[in-house]
Design goal:
about 300 residues, Endonuclease I-creI, Jelly Rolls, about 40% strand, 2 domains, globular, single chain, about 10% helix, two-stranded antiparallel sheet, mainly beta, 19-stranded mixed β-sheet
C-alpha cells in the first residue's frame, strides 16, 4: 500500500498550483499520514499550544488522481483513521467571538494536551473520552484561485463534519486535471459546533482511503456523503439558515433522482425523519449536514399529488 508521509507536499490552501506528493489510481487503497493542523510542534505531553507557534491553517497533503478530468466527480471513501498518541485542544479567548458570547470572559490562551491510547482520549485520571476519529478537511482543488484551508466551499474544505469518518464516502466535484485531493486536519473527537475553535482533539493521524471517479449527474451540487446507514448532503454557506435550506433541498433532489420519490412526498417525509446539525459555528462558513436513514427511502407508489 502506498504511504504518503506528512512531511511531503503539505499546503495551507486548496489550489491547482499545489504540487501533489503522490499520484494514485482510481480504486487504489493508500494511506496519508496527516500533519497536525497547525504544524508539527507537538512532540511531548508537556508541550502546550499557543498562537505564536501555530502555522497552517489546517495543513493538507495533496494527492493527484490518475485520469481525473474537469466535469467528473471524485468519490473519496475513508476506510480508517488512526490517531497518533498525542493531541491537544485550545483557543485564544481574544480571537474567538463565540466564547465571549457563550461565557463573558477576558481569557487569554486556554489549552490542554492529552494522550490518545487504547481507543480513548485521556482527558484526566478520572475521565476518558472515546476516540471517534474524523477528518476535518477533504477537498478537491478549485478551477481558479485558491481557498484557505480554514474554509469550506463547493469543492469541499474545512467542513469539520463528524460524518467524514471511517465508512463514509465523500463525493466532490473535479474542477482541474488530476482532481488534486487535499486531506488533513484530523481530530480524535469533536463536539458539535466546535465552540472553542480548537477543533476538538487535534492530532496527527494515519488515514487509509480509496478514490473512484464517476460521471456527474445533473442533480449533483455541494457535497454528498454516503455510508451504510445514511444518505447525506452537506452545504457551507455564510448564513446558517441558508446552509440548512441548501442541504435539505439537495437531499430532496437526491431522493427524487436516486430513489423515485416525487418532491412533495420527499418534502413531507423529511418533515418526520430528517436529521440535521450544524457542526461548525466558529467559521464564516456554517457547515450543515442533512441526512435521512436509508430504511426510510421507500417511496409510496400510491402517493397522491
Amino acid at each position: 500500500m502506498k504511504v504518503i508521509t506528512r512531511d511531503t507536499g503539505i499546503y495551507n490552501c486548496q489550489s491547482k498550483e499545489n504540487a501533489p506528493a503522490a499520484r494514485v489510481q482510481p480504486g487504489e487503497v493508500f494511506c496519508v499520514e496527516t500533519q497536525l493542523c497547525g504544524g508539527g510542534w507537538l512532540q511531548t505531553a508537556e508541550d502546550r499550544w499557543s498562537p505564536a507557534i501555530t502555522k497552517g491553517p489546517n495543513y493538507c497533503n495533496v494527492v493527484e488522481v490518475e485520469g481525473a478530468r474537469p466535469g467528473q466527480l471524485l468519490e473519496v471513501t475513508i476506510l480508517s483513521v488512526e490517531p497518533e498518541e498525542l493531541g491537544y485542544t485550545g483557543f485564544a479567548g481574544w480571537r474567538n467571538d463565540l466564547s465571549q458570547m457563550i461565557i463573558p470572559n477576558e481569557w487569554d490562551v486556554v489549552t490542554k494536551t492529552v494522550r490518545i491510547r487504547d481507543g480513548f482520549v485521556q482527558w484526566s485520571d478520572e475521565l476518558k473520552l472515546p476516540v471517534i476519529p474524523m477528518v476535518g478537511v477533504v477537498a478537491t482543488a478549485p478551477a481558479e484561485g485558491s481557498v484557505t484551508n480554514a474554509l469550506a466551499v463547493r469543492t469541499g474544505g474545512n467542513m469539520d463534519l463528524q460524518e467524514v469518518c471511517p465508512g463514509t464516502t465523500i463525493t466532490l466535484p473535479v474542477e482541474c486535471a488530476g482532481a488534486l485531493l487535499h486531506i488533513g486536519d484530523c481530530h480524535a473527537i469533536m463536539g458539535d459546533g466546535e465552540i472553542c475553535r480548537g477543533g476538538g482533539i487535534e492530532c496527527q493521524a494515519k488515514v487509509t482511503l480509496k478514490v473512484e471517479l464517476r460521471d456527474r449527474p445533473d442533480h449533483f451540487d455541494w457535497i454528498w456523503l454516503d455510508n451504510e446507514d445514511y444518505l447525506m448532503v452537506a452545504a457551507c454557506e455564510t448564513d446558517v439558515k441558508q446552509s440548512f435550506a441548501t442541504a435539505a433541498g439537495l437531499l430532496i433532489k437526491r431522493m427524487v433522482a436516486e430513489y423515485g420519490f416525487c418532491e412533495k412526498e420527499a418534502y413531507l417525509l423529511l418533515g418526520q425523519v430528517l436529521e440535521s446539525r450544524c457542526s461548525v459555528y466558529v467559521s464564516p462558513m456554517y457547515t450543515v449536514v442533512c441526512k435521512i436513514n436509508r430504511k426510510y427511502l421507500k417511496p409510496d407508489p400510491n402517493f397522491a399529488e
